[in-house]
Amino acid sequence: MDAAPRPPKISVEAVTKLYGRKGEVRALENVDLEINEGEFVCLVGPSGCGKSTLLRMIADLHYPTSGSVKIQASGPGLTTAMVFQNYSIFPWKTVAENIGLPLEVNGTPKAERVDRVAALMDRMNLSDFADALPSALSGGMAQRVSIARALAVQPEILLMDEPFAALDAQMRRILQDELLSIWQEDQRTVVFVTHSLEEAILLGDRVVVMSARPGKIIGDYRIPFERPRRPEVRGTKEFAELEQEIWSQMRGEVERANK
């Protein structure tokens, strides 16, 4: 007999989210989304469309007004980790201490913690800054620390909320390329919020387009470029055509959100 199909890793079913004392702000409306294990899914849409709200629901930080968000755990405990735009690292802790903090909190033995932190610092080009405080780091290095800390717990699901938005264009491109390489090594489930279509197409298996508020899903594009994906794909005609196709659908929503 054929094995039963595996359920989606993340299932968002008919989710609506209202804010305000009387529910006067409708952030999301009847959102349905399925994400399979090992998929890298990028959420794009105009500002205020509910992308970050949806991400926080997956992280169990916000709750739907109606509908449900279900996560399929692989084992007895589900691990998710989140990377924010503003780094969210502790200014009084060194790079090594920041990366190792979640391992310390969950009781990982010291020897294993030291080895895992060292491996992550090497992977993220941070080894020379192990004893540095965040005040000594550039924005790009600070975000590397944030990503390394998220990866330290070896999460089943990695949630990323515009992690490169505060960086200059050159550093943003470098970290996009590094994240692409990291993900292709272990292919964990990633949900990535961004305003950049170029970033979404480069990184994602799928690009999910949301409407202006109240946020609804109006497009779901499967990215045709093979894995492992090379950063040079940005310069191809096919990449530019796909970016234009998605923008053509999104443009009206951006204009509507800014009226």
UniProtKB/TrEMBL annotation:
Q: List, alphabetically, the Gene3D superfamilies matched.
A: P-loop containing nucleotide triphosphate hydrolases
Report the residue ranges that make up the ABC transporter domain in this protein: 10-237
InterPro entries in alphabetical order: AAA+_ATPase, ABC_transporter-like_ATP-bd, ABC_transporter-like_CS, ABC_transporter_ATP-bind, P-loop_NTPase
Keywords for this protein:
ATP-binding, Glycosyltransferase, Nucleotide-binding, Transferase, Transport
Q: Which GO molecular function annotation, any one, does this entry have?
A: glycosyltransferase activity
Source superkingdom? Bacteria
Cross-referenced SUPFAM superfamilies: P-loop containing nucleoside triphosphate hydrolases
State the name under which the record lists this protein: Mannosyltransferase
